[in-house]
Amino acid sequence: MKSRWWLLAAWVCVIPFPRNAGAQEKTARVVHVYVALADNEHQGIVPVSKALGNGEEAGRNLYWGAAFGVRTYFRNSAEWKELASVQKPTAAVLERVVFYHAAGNVYLIADAYRGQEIKTAVTGFLEAAAGLRTDAATKIKSTKGKEIEIPSGPQMVVYVGHDGLMDFALERAFSGDAGGKRQAIVLACASKLFFGPSLKTTGAEPLLWTTGLMAPEAYALKAALDGWIAGEGAEEIRQRAARAYAKYQKISVTAAGRLFATGW
């Protein structure tokens, strides 16, 4: 009998007791998108229509409120639910929207920077890539009045818009490290060439950027994030973005593939 109790005790010791339910929940990830609104007056872009190129009005802007702008495209997506829209959260930002991807447990914060504040947008993106923006958790009120707290420190930082580094230089470096395993996407013309030196010092990993002239519209971003959320590798994500770009720009996948790059 004594030996039987010893065996029972040993068997109990190796039973995997359930963990606390909260500990089992997957930690939410955060994507922060910095959008410099298209601006015919203050940016060196090929001029577009007055409505699309008004950098002081987000609602119809090419990179924000237009059909393929970040706010509109994600708002119309089945996978992403819009939680909140905040008007003028800062002097430089006209609108902030927050989306949530339930299946991936991912929050997306997108800021629409005034066109003339493009340098501020680029600076903010690089600071976030370097892990220098360690603000407290973002608290927002949803459209239903519920307060939502989004963890600070995005795992993915994104810049969308005109490649301002073609027009101006930055007076400072953005030194960081890769300890936070941050990744970056830069949808702007020839972003690998122009953003490369500054992004290198941040320690962030360039998941997706470009090698030539392009339209920084949201379908490429969503395609890349779809792959990222699914846990795909960098090359698979690059190909996803290329296929989406080819579809909407009506060019070959081969040509689109040459436009996108990943890594250094």
Return the structural class. alpha/beta
Summarize the main sheet.
8 strands, mixed
Are there runs of 5+ residues with pLDDT below 50, and where?
1-24
Q: Would you report the number of β strands? A: 10
* Contiguous helical run count: 8
Count of the domains: 1
**Average pLDDT value?**
89
Name the overall outline: globular
Work out the strand percent. 15-25%
Helix content: 25-40%
Report the C-alpha radius of gyration, rounded. Answer: 21 Å
Question: What topology does this entry show?
Answer:
Elements: H1 2-13, H2 21-24, E1 29-36, H3 70-75, E2 80-87, E3 93-101, E4 106-113, H4 118-129, E5 138-141, E6 147-150, E7 156-160, E8 183-187, H5 191-202, E9 205-210, H6 218-229, H7 234-249, H8 253-259, E10 260-261
Helix pairs in contact: 6-7, 7-8
Task: Summarize the structure in words.
There is one protein chain. The chain is 31% helix and 22% strand. It is an alpha/beta fold and 264 residues long. The chain has one domain (27-261). The chain has an 8-stranded mixed beta sheet with strand order 2-3-4-1-7-8-9-10, sandwiched between helices. The chain is globular and about 45 Å long.
